[in-house]
From TrEMBL:
Belongs to the type-II 3-dehydroquinase family. The active site is at Y22, H99. The record marks R17 as: Transition state stabilizer. The gene is aroQ. The keyword RNA-binding does not apply. This is 3-dehydroquinate dehydratase. Keywords: Amino-acid biosynthesis, Aromatic amino acid biosynthesis, Lyase. Its EC number is 4.2.1.10. NCBIfam families: aroQ, PRK05395.1-2, PRK05395.1-3, PRK05395.1-4. Homododecamer. GO terms for molecular function: 3-dehydroquinate dehydratase activity. HAMAP family: AroQ. Substrate binds at N73, H79, D86, L100, S101, R110. Transmembrane segments: none annotated.
Length: 145
């Protein structure tokens, strides 16, 4: 089975974007690393990024229709997109919310997520390792504790 990694707005600029917050790894490098990590786990991993809310909503519908597990970094949409939250609420497989930075140690507005009530779990502040931990969990057999 396949696991989708979906990244929201401005994450295509990783490497150039506030490297002191988000690190120096580019989105291409992130994708390469996570696909390789998936191979180690024996799962197919597909990484996508978009700056367009409707495109992300469409990908979440696709994941719901095909029962694909998802690792989602909704980026800024985390904090206000009811459209993305409503799409996540339709999930038919596990979905783990991931943030590269520790959103609880930054501006107050980053501390609230409209996505979390519909996610299986959340990982924040561990950089790209957070995606790997999420993949490890999603690659486990369903209903593992
Ligand atoms: C982010 C945190 C968000 O607050 C921010 O808008 C992002 C990235 C993270 O990965 O740390 O774009 O989701």
């Amino acid at each position: 089975t396949k696991i989708l990694i979906l990244n929201g707005p401005n994450l295509g600029r990783l490497g150039k974007r506030q490297p002191e917050v988000y690190g120096s790894t580019t989105h291409d490098q992130l994708a390469e690393r996570l696909v390789a990590f998936g191979q180690e786990l024996g799962v197919e991993v597909e990484v996508r990024q978009t700056d367009h809310e409707g495109e992300l909503v469409g990908w979440l519908h696709e994941a719901a229709d095909l029962s694909l597990p998802v690792v989602l970094n909704p980026a800024a949409w985390t904090h206000y997109s009811i459209a993305v939250a409503d799409a996540v609420a339709q999930r038919t497989a596990d979905l783990i919310e991931v943030h590269l930075s520790n959103v609880h140690a930054r501006e107050e507005f980053r501390r609230h997520s409209v996505i979390t009530p519909y996610a299986t779990g959340v990982i924040a502040g561990l950089g790209i390792a957070g995606y790997e931990l999420a993949l490890r969990r999603l690659a486990e057999p369903p209903s593992a504790p």
